[in-house]
Amino acid sequence: AEKLSSLKDKDWNDFLQRVCSLLGSTEKNTGAARSKLSLLYYLCTVAVHKEVASRLISSQLFPILIQQLRAAANWDIRAKVAQVIGLLALHTSELGENVPVSEAIILLTELIRENFRNSKLKQCLLPALGELLYLVASEEEKREHPRECVVPSAAYTVLMRCLREGVRLFHW
């Protein structure tokens, strides 16, 4: 993480380009899925560094993570993507205006609602949703003029329903 945080802009952009290319790949073979999972494990490791998390969440990587959360056929990949999103939200020091947080919140809410009876899956998705909601609330509290991040009431409804049913929120 320290090495990543010290990269010059050109090297950082090259790194991001390679990461986004690998994650955005539509290959469906076992090797591609394994490569994506390995990359996601790596991102979980570096996402705990505040500067790296802030740079990653504000980059073109975040929309690709959302796309993978929506489209990946492999639920192991989806679960790890959710973990990366949650860790980025937890460790970022600032949230840029162009980060599609609302889209991520809406998608996580939909996935939890669609898979409500699958408690293992909820345990993967709920922490990311909770961290994003906390990040949005923290950012609004810091700013005089809160950003336009519309949090749908369905997100709070799903979260409260899960809490009532006793699902653990944090597992990583």
From TrEMBL:
- Gene3D superfamilies recorded for this chain? Leucine-rich Repeat Variant
Q: Give the domain of life.
A: Eukaryota
Keyword Manganese part of the UniProt annotation: no
Sequence intervals crossing the membrane: none
A molecular function (GO) held by this record is:
kinase activity
Which keywords does the record carry? Kinase, Transferase
InterPro entries attached to this UniProt entry: ARM-like (IPR011989), ARM-type_fold (IPR016024), ULK4 (IPR045906)
- Protein name, please? ULK4 kinase
The top of its lineage is: Eukaryota, Metazoa, Chordata, Craniata, Vertebrata
